[in-house]
Amino acid sequence: MTTDLRILSEASRIKSSLVEREALEWIPCSEETLSVEGHCQVSQGHVRILSCRSAQELSAWTEALSLKQKSQTNIFLDKVCLNDLTDRQVNWVRHYKISVLAGGFKFIDLLNSFENVEYALSPLGMSLRDRQVAAEKALRAVELWEHRFKRPHQMSLEMRFRVGLAQAIAKSPRLVVIEDRFLTDVSSLNWLERVATLYGCVVLVLQLEA
Asked: What is the mean pLDDT of the segment spanning 159-175?
């Protein structure tokens, strides 16, 4: 691990300690893992596409599912109503139970693939060893472990997608939300299905109708 990464990780750890979070008693639910009232109901290990009629609607769903704004529609994750959470509980769920791929991949070009995935876990308060183990598991899930020393600019678009996906699943979330514009080709859905099965999570793809 590089010295630069140690400094960045420490900065993230200090920053994360300032965020008030309140842990919830969380019981994974294999059935009805995600339920969006009037829209979809998904069990763990599955991928579901949610079609949006406009860019504004897609953006609204991204904001609601990432818990950045309250939704008028009741959203349940493992039968917990996300609309009823306090601000501190929302912060905890956002950090540990939900990953959102929107607004671009969050890579640091000075870091290799392994370091980028490990660094994405630094705000969670995990030990260095636990972050490294989780990063290795995630990169193996997307079959990039042999390419772990490559930096983002040395990889194809499809490989960068898989690194971004590894960042999203490394913390073992219950829900992964991704906008369809990040899917590079037909194989992207196969990778989403693979990680949904391996990690027992729900992957929700927000798709803009043509």
From this structure: 96
Q: Which helix (H) or strand (E) holds 49?
A: strand 47-52
Instruction: Assess whether pLDDT exceeds 70 at residue 6.
Output: no
Percentage of the chain beyond pLDDT 70 is 90
Residue 209: band (very low, low, confident or very high) from pLDDT cuts 50, 70, 90? confident
Tokens of 135: 């990063």
Cα separations (Å) of 8 from 75, 108, 127? 34, 10, 14
Is the Cβ–Cβ distance between 145 and 180 less than 8 Å?
no
In angstroms, rounded to a whole number, what is the distance separating the alpha carbons of residues 74 and 37? 5
Domain boundaries, the chain: 3-208
Q: Are 45 and 194 in contact (CB under 8 A)?
A: no
Alpha carbon distance 78, 80 (integer Å): 5
CATH number of this structure's domain 3-208: 3.40.50.300
